[in-house]
Design goal:
Elements lengths: L1 E4 L4 E7 L3 H8 L14 E6 L2 E6 L8 E7 L3 H12 L9 H10 L34 H10 L3 E8 L11 E4 L2 E12 L4 E9 L9 E4 L2 E8 L14
Antiparallel strand pairs: 1-2, 2-5, 3-4, 4-5, 6-9, 6-11, 7-8, 7-10, 8-9, 10-11
Helix pairs in contact: 1-2
C-alpha cells in the first residue's frame, strides 16, 4: 500500500498486489470481483467508515486500486486497510518501488518522460491523437510537425550493467556524438533488467553501439520494447 497526497482535501491510498482485491473486499461492501468491477472501472464506496472513490487502475502492473479518500477520513481508511491486510502480509511501499514497477510496465511519468518540448508522436502517444477529427487545439501545429517528420523518439533502453541506474539528464552517445538524453532510469526487480527511457535522435534508434554516460563511465545500452513485465496486461485484469 502507498499513500500519495492529491490535494489539500483528498489523498490517494494505492492498494496493489495479487491480494489487493481480498483486502478491499474485507473493508468495503459490494462485489469487487473482476466481473463486477473490472480494470478501469470507478465507483463510490465506503472503506471502513470512510467515504471513497475507488478506481481499478494500476501504475505498478499488478492488480491494484486507487482509493481516493477525503483527508478528514484518511486515518480511518488507513487503519481499516492495514488491519484487513494483516492476514495477507500487507506492507507499505514508496516512490522508488513505484518508479521501478512503472518502468517495467512501460508507463510514462508526466514531467519526466512526457514533456512539452516533445510532441505526442515523438513520445509514442500517437494512439491518443486522432488527426482525422475536426479542428482541435494544437492540430495545426501537429500537422506541421508531422510533415517535417520525427526528430526525436522516446525509447526504452536496457542498460548493460548492474551497479548503477541511469539518471535523468545523462547523455546517450553514438561514436562520440550525443544522440539522446535519458529521462528516467531504475532497476526492474521483477524482471532483473536495468531499465531507462531516453529521447534519441530518430536516425539513431536502430543504431548499434549506443552508450550512456553514467557516473563518468560510458555504459552500453540497447533499445528494447517497452514494458517487459506482463506485456499482455493479464495481472491487472485478474
Amino acid at each position: 500500500m502507498q499513500i500519495r497526497s492529491l490535494t489539500n482535501d483528498w489523498t490517494i491510498l494505492v492498494l496493489a498486489g495479487p491480494k489487493s482485491r481480498d483486502v478491499l473486499s474485507a473493508v468495503s461492501r459490494g462485489d469487487w470481483s473482476a466481473a463486477a468491477f473490472p480494470w478501469l472501472s470507478v465507483r463510490e464506496a465506503y472503506v471502513g467508515i470512510a467515504p471513497a472513490i475507488v478506481m481499478a487502475i494500476s501504475f505498478s502492473g499488478e492488480l491494484a486500486y486507487e482509493i481516493h479518500i477525503p483527508n478528514a477520513q484518511l486515518y480511518a481508511a488507513y487503519l481499516a486497510l492495514r488491519e484487513a491486510g494483516r492476514a495477507h502480509h500487507l506492507r507499505l511501499f514508496r516512490s522508488r518501488a513505484i518508479e521501478s514497477m512503472r518502468m517495467e510496465k512501460g508507463h510514462l511519468h508526466w514531467k519526466s518522460d512526457i514533456l512539452t518540448e516533445f510532441d505526442p508522436f515523438e513520445t509514442g502517444l500517437e494512439h491518443f491523437v486522432k488527426m482525422d477529427k475536426p479542428n482541435f487545439i494544437g492540430k495545426a501545429a501537429l500537422e506541421v510537425r508531422q510533415a517535417k517528420g520525427l526528430k526525436k523518439t522516446l525509447v526504452s533502453l536496457r542498460v548493460d550493467c548492474t551497479d548503477r541506474a541511469a539518471h535523468a539528464g545523462a547523455s546517450v552517445v553514438l561514436g562520440g556524438r550525443v544522440v539522446g538524453t535519458v529521462t528516467s532510469g531504475e532497476w526492474g526487480h521483477r524482471t532483473g533488467l536495468n531499465l531507462a527511457y531516453a529521447f534519441l535522435d530518430a536516425d539513431a534508434v536502430n543504431a548499434k553501439g549506443l552508450k550512456a554516460n553514467l557516473l563518468g563511465d560510458p555504459i552500453s545500452v540497447t533499445v528494447m520494447p517497452a514494458g517487459p513485465y506482463d506485456p499482455g496486461n493479464t495481472l491487472v485484469r485478474m
